[in-house]
Amino acid sequence: MVSMYPYSISKIANQLIEICKLKDLKIATAESCTGGLIAGSLTAISGSSAVFERGFNTYSNQSKCELLNVSFDDIVTFGAVSEQVAGKMAEGALNNSPVHLTAAVTGIAGPDGGSPDKPV
User: Fold this and answer.
1) Which of the residues 30, 70, 104, 120 could staple to 114 if both were Cys, CB 3.0 to 4.6 A apart?
2) For residue range 5-55, what is the model confidence (pLDDT) as tens digits?
3) What are the residue boundaries of the structural domains of the chain, listed by start?
4) 10-14, 60-64, 109-113: segment of lowest average pLDDT
5) What is the distance between the alpha carbons of residues 2 and 20, in angstroms, rounded to a whole number?
6) CATH of domain 9-105
7) 51: burial class by Cβ within 10 Å (0-12, 13-18, 19+)?
8) pTM score of the predicted model
9) Are 110 and 86 in contact (CB under 8 A)?
């Protein structure tokens, strides 16, 4: 099978870990639909404990509000699957962790559940 991506997740994760080690940066993740896949990809790398601090698995709207301080009004206004909420998730991870970098992801888990406005 040929990947549609030029790099594998593990290769990108490896590169991120190495760059963070060189620059002495710490990382946290905030994930929704991926359920920890990004954190798992990072922590699968030997030596990642030097830079990976924590991951927030916030699948429900309530957990986004409670753990990452995402405003419920933002979820209602923009939707849980929106650039605005993803940004608030990243900001919440940064504010709740002793880190320099955060990555956040939200989306619609397939194969069902999408809509014409937000397809899977």
Assistant:
1) 120
2) 556 888 999 999 999 999 999 999 999 999 999 999 999 999 999 999 999
3) 9-105
4) 109-113
5) 29
6) 3.90.950.20
7) buried
8) 0.87
9) no
